[in-house]
Amino acid sequence: MRDMLLNPDEFERRKQAALERLGSNDPSCVICGEHDWRTLQRHHLPGRAFGAELVTVCGNCHAKLTDAQHDHPSGEGEPPFLVRLARYLLGLAELAGQLVEQLRDYANALFIAAARCPQPWGYLQSGSEGS
């Protein structure tokens, strides 16, 4: 039974199928940078019913983007061009908002690192590391 769980051919088949679906041999989440192919998905930027524009994101970022789409106006029937365009722009705005949030987190982490690093990389004065 254990040999069935450790089938390298099946693992490689799943990996290649995922890479093909993601459209890259080196995919990563456009928001957080996650690069494990097992966690990456394709997100319909305007929503599945409103357009085919796709972006690669990890499962966590995908959940946030998709949840935000539930607040966007939808309408019924075949969406007209202006509605599809509006949904695409809202999708871009949601993506940009998550990117801004991620950039703020990275910037705050750098400020924390700067407080612990000697000059020229940070604020610590030479010789004050042990203080």
Structural description of this entry:
It is a single chain. Strands 1-2 form a two-stranded antiparallel sheet. It has one domain. 49% of the residues lie in helices and 8% in strands. It is mainly alpha-helical. The mean pLDDT is 90. Helix 3 packs across helix 4.
Please count the beta strands (DSSP E, at least 2 residues each): 2
Q: What value does the Rg take, in angstroms?
A: 21 Å
The largest β sheet comes out as: 2 strands, antiparallel
Strand order of the largest sheet: 1-2
What is the 3D shape?
flat
Order of helices and strands: HHEEHH
Q: Which residues form runs of ≥5 with pLDDT under 50? A: none
Average pLDDT over all residues: 90
What is the number of helices? 4
Give the count of structural domains: 1
Strand content: 5-15%
Structural class: mainly alpha
Cα(first) to Cα(last) distance is 58 Å
Which bin fits the share of residues in helices? 40-55%
